[in-house]
Amino acid sequence: MLYTTLPSLIISLVAFTVIGFTITGNGDVSNVSMYTDYIQQHFNITPWLFIPPLAVILMIAMKIPAIPSLIVGVVLGGAAYILFQGGSLGEYSDIIHTGVKMDTLNSKMDMLFSRGGIESMYSVVILTLISLALGGIMNHTGMLHSIVLKISGLLKSVGSLTATVIGTSVFVNIITANQYLAVIIPGQMFEESYRNHKLKLKNLTSALEAGGTLTAPLIPWNSNAVFVFLTLGVPVVKLAPYAILCWLTPIIVIVFAFFNIKMERTKTPDEEPDDQQ
Q: How many other C-beta atoms are found inside a 10 Å radius of the C-beta of residue 108?
């Protein structure tokens, strides 16, 4: 996805730089010192704390599978907590399960520092399982195939196929308010179409990410947008124009598809192993 995301990221950074030098604001930064003082008093800040995230990034760059990478991140994070923050193994075990609970008598600060834990992910895991089940039912009963047949006229070229996938993902985001369904359902709908065009399925993945994941924060009633609003206190309508990466990447993906840029085709098993098809 770097071929499509990197250009939109560079354009976004240039735009943010220009905006930063041309727009002035009167934001209230009086509380910044309160947060920085609290961090300095209660946390031991050291460059060694960069090791866990850098290790995970390195493993991702080396294409090491997700589960080993996550395990290494958890182990190194626990070691950093015990060595540099003075915690114990028992406390770290509780943090993994229930997350960090801070009591500073300041509600905003407590909300900032009290995060994480497996328990906080239960709703996401359940939602994912339900999304997978719904997508599986729709696929097995032929509902998805029936929809694809109705719009088969839009799937004749690689460019129109990609645009249809992204449009479908955005539509599912709008009607379901959930990015998981916006990735799973279109993915199952158009997998066969990508195979018919002799396209590698990573092209489908790129389109699903652009249309399903990146547009989710732009839908005001989507769960992602609600999170952004609750975190920043900024309505999506006001934030969306500045979320350049979110709306520019789908456009670039569609342009790449119409001009056949980096749209890799499948090869025969003799030319390429089955797991790379």
A: 11
Question: Could you give the C-alpha distances from 208 to 13, 41, 186, 191, in angstroms and in order?
Answer: 23, 44, 7, 11
pLDDT range class, residue 167, cuts 50, 70, 90: very high
Q: ∠ at Cα 215 (209, 221), nearest 5°?
A: 130
3-state secondary structure the chain: CHHHHHHHHHHHHHHHHHHHHHCCCCCCCCCHHHHHHHHHHHCCCCHHHHHHHHHHHHHHHCCCCHHHHHHHHHHHHHHHHHHHCCCCHHHHHHHHHHCCCCCCCCHHHHHHHCCCCHHHHHHHHHHHHHHHHHHHHHHHCCHHHHHHHHCHHHCCCHHHHHHHHHHHHHHHHHHHCCHHHHHHHHHHHHHHHHHHCCECHHHHHHHHHHHHHCCHHHCCCCHHHHHHHHHHCCCHHHHHHHCHHHHHHHHHHHHHHHCCCCCCECCCCCCCCHHHC
Predicted structure pTM score:
0.71
Is the Cβ–Cβ distance between 250 and 165 less than 8 Å? no
Output the six-digit token pair for 277. 């098809």
Domain boundaries, the chain: 1-21+120-266, 44-116
pLDDT digits (tens, 9 = 90+) for 140-164: 888 877 877 787 777 889 999 999 9
